[in-house]
Amino acid sequence: MSVQSVLEQNKASGRGSLIGYFPAGYPTVEDSIEAFVALAKNGCDILEVGVPYSDPVMDGVVIQKATEKALANGFRLSQVFDVIRGVREQVNTPMLVMSYYNPVLRYGVERFATELKACGAQGMITPDLIPDEASDWLRSAEQEDLDRVFLVAPSSSDARVRANTEASRGFIYSVSTMGITGERAELDKLAREVASRVRRVGAAPRCVGVGVSTGDQVRDVNSYADGAIVGTALIAAYESAGLEGLIEKTRELASGLG
To answer: Would you say residue 96 has pLDDT above 70?
Structure first.
């Protein structure tokens, strides 16, 4: 099932959607496969497979430390495909890779897209890429029938919101706040405004991330968007209590889906 169809079917049935982020290779490749399967089996509708990178400008401290640990343990970009294959052998949950663009450029955009499709992923989220500079990725994604998810933020101009929304497939990633990822006690009110601006532009599902960390916030986000994206809270739970902590946190977040 495609990313967009999952979001749309859940919305039509009156249920929200939960997208769970976790770094590939954290703390090891096998551990991350186990973590993704746990996310899928305990409430996540879509999996966001993070690519560890040495300069994660958008990520907060929790995610940075996790990706640093994966890199220290020898993670290589090609292993993201091993992780996806390992997860796909156990669950059918749609998966999107989340990667800064430089590692993909170095790997080869066309080669990356081909292997992404072959291993069973649905597409890629590119936090530091805009459609104006994404011609190679857009062409390769089209050839391989892959989703391409761009971001919009409270600071995005109307022209940028339109361009990124129209270029996205799967969903448009609405950043709820200015700054880096991380848990926040209260989601910025700007999140509603960003989601509303995206809705006025086109039909792409809108998912909101950056700061979502509780079941109540998942419920709140799904009241005005098509899905809630959670990363930091899941990694923090895993860091403090291992797989059982991750499962417990996923279930708590999924309690807000209705």
So the answer is: yes
